[in-house]
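Re: Re: token formats

Sure, here are both.
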Amino acid sequence: MKVSLECAHCLLERAGNQVKLATDDPELQMKIIEAMTRFLGENFNSDAVPSHIGTERDLLVQRMTGCDPYEGLKHQSNAMALRILPELLQLVDGKSNAKARFRTSVLIAAAANSIEFDVSGRDFSLNELKTTIDHVEDDLAIDQIEEFRRLCQSAKTVLYIMDNAGELVLDVILIREMKRLGAEVTAVVKGGPVLNDATMIDADEVHLNDYADRVVDTGTPAIGVNIERSSDEFRNLFTSSELIVAKGMGNFESMTEFDPHCPTVHIMRTKCNPVARQVGVPRNKNVIMIRRPAAD
């Protein structure tokens, strides 16, 4: 997926937000924004990919400030999600059959993508999250959950590409259901800090390996999937997987730059107009959609 006009504003606005999180020094803040506008002037064009440009933006902020702007918020997000995880697991286990458990777990994963876990001072109660799950169902513009479930029954190896800290806690519910259907699930986090995306630090913090068969990182701090920057280990896992689950818009933006080699399930909320247009649904809708290889 390539950038559109709206992406320029979004990229710069998020840079400003990150700068304010990273430093209180007004002189340094201005230097970073000056560097950012120069970078965008040189690299923002019709061939650019939003997630790739966003990666360079984040790394620029980190280089100039020497810190990860989202480090504290990620810890808060994980703690917040862990508090409600036990009751959500019980909610799924209370369903009458395997099909209902799977559907509910997918809706929880979609709800997790719609929540802005990285908002400082924000907390969520179980009742509020249940309401969000109900709204996920109401706002479900593309619903391929049953096809997804059948794919899990036939696929032996599944790659589950995580999105944000906090969100990954609720993804374990879906991973558990996928494993119950017979799939071997490898969970993937980022190879270093970028945005508020989950890294191995977050995976260890929430005990992700208690749910997934294996936890690996991409080998690079990059938004979405950047094959060229990724480690050999991740590339080999990616190309050999029989089914891929990709959370969030960053993964969608990057992975639509190449044809899928296996069925790829995107679970996300269309939080911006460019992604919504690419998917073919209105903005602020929930999507569980499957992209398949051309031969399929």
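Second one below.
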Amino acid sequence: MPNASDFPYLHGFSKTEQDRLRTQAEFTEHVIYKDINFSGNTNILEVGCGVGAQSEILLRRFPKIQLTGIELNEKQIASATDYLKDFSFAKDRYELLKMDATQMSFDSNQFDGAFLCWVLEHVPNPKHALNEVRRVLKPGSTIYINEVMNSSFFLEPYSPHVWKYWMAFNDYQLDNAGDPFIGAKLGNLLLELGFKDIKTEVKTWHYDNRHPTQKSETIKFWTELLMSAKDQLIKEKVVSVELAQKAEQELAQVARNHDSVFFYSFMQASARVF
């Protein structure tokens, strides 16, 4: 099995980052789960369960499911294990395993549903991962995938240092076998692999002066997301300390600007196995 360190994770595995991932899951829950329904399922596979942030939501929202989460990084599994043990509704309903999504050790036709959230953007070969998911799903099973489309990111007023930082952020991911634009490609991937009933929906955060509270909260959330990669990008000499500082300053200026605008879209796809 490949070591997790073979696949550089842009945000790192610090306690601060692990807490941010849980905050992210809470912040995005109402958008992500609006059209997700596992109420008729019993045995769900979560690919890339990370720190258990989405696992907690799945177990809470769908009290009849048994959840199996797979993750390649041992620090994330330890964090997820520690996190989920505090939820009484999750007791005896989940299993977390160290496993490569492209080489699963499960039998075929083992699960009746699958969930992936912000995972394929970090996987060197997402096609292999999705093909493995298809193999382990029973006929009639549903898969839900949420993925990034980073080219959609927009801020007003124009912030040149944020833009340079964001381009470096995406270039680093591409250079390390990730794909920050994979959301738009999900339909093609699922079709090629033989999934049926494929649906894709663009989910968008678009906030201006009509929604000042949501706009402020979203810019704050995205500032934390962008800056969570700062140490790695500086370490790898992808950005300079000065650029990171100026980008953070611009984000603060956008947050204070009465006429600011925030826009970002991601893709949610669903499909079935036959």
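Residues 193 and 274 are 11 Å apart (CA to CA). The beta strands are 43-47, 66-71, 94-98, 111-117, 137-148, 154-156, 196-207, 261-272.
- S.
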